[in-house]
Design goal:
By secondary structure, this protein is mainly alpha-helical. It has six helices and two strands; from the N terminus they run ααβαβααα. Helix 1 packs across helix 2 and helix 4 runs parallel beside helix 6.
Length: 115
């Protein structure tokens, strides 16, 4: 999904305040407070404002993925490397990631016995 450039006038403090109180502003601040900086996502219309704000903030590394399973693989690797991350997707995407999560769980359980 291409991120459209914001061609409006600079935001006032009132506009910034209202953005922070919106659901996408709250999510963005919660991610920052919890040091979650890697945010791959599957493009979705409902998430457009949040995605634009993530791209605009240098704290975050965010990029689109083609499928939910791809995003799960990316955040799994990041977790193994000690990085906090989150996948953003629409609700129907949860049904699509069951196999990816099950494979990861089997791998994780099998590694515990080899320590």
């Amino acid at each position: 999904m291409a991120v459209a450039e914001d061609k409006t006038s600079p935001k006032t403090s009132l506009e910034n305040s209202s953005q922070e109180k919106s659901w996408h502003g709250i999510v963005l601040q919660a991610l920052k407070r919890n040091d979650v900086s890697l945010v791959p996502y599957v493009p979705d219309r409902i998430l457009t404002t949040l995605i634009k704000n993530l791209h605009a903030d240098p704290f975050f590394t965010t990029f689109p993925t083609a499928r939910e399973e791809e995003a799960v693989g990316i955040v799994s690797g990041a977790w193994m490397g000690g990085m906090k991350s989150v996948v953003m997707m629409q609700s129907s995407g949860f049904a699509l990631i069951v196999n990816a999560l099950a494979r990861w769980l089997v791998w994780r359980v099998s590694r515990e016995g080899q320590s």
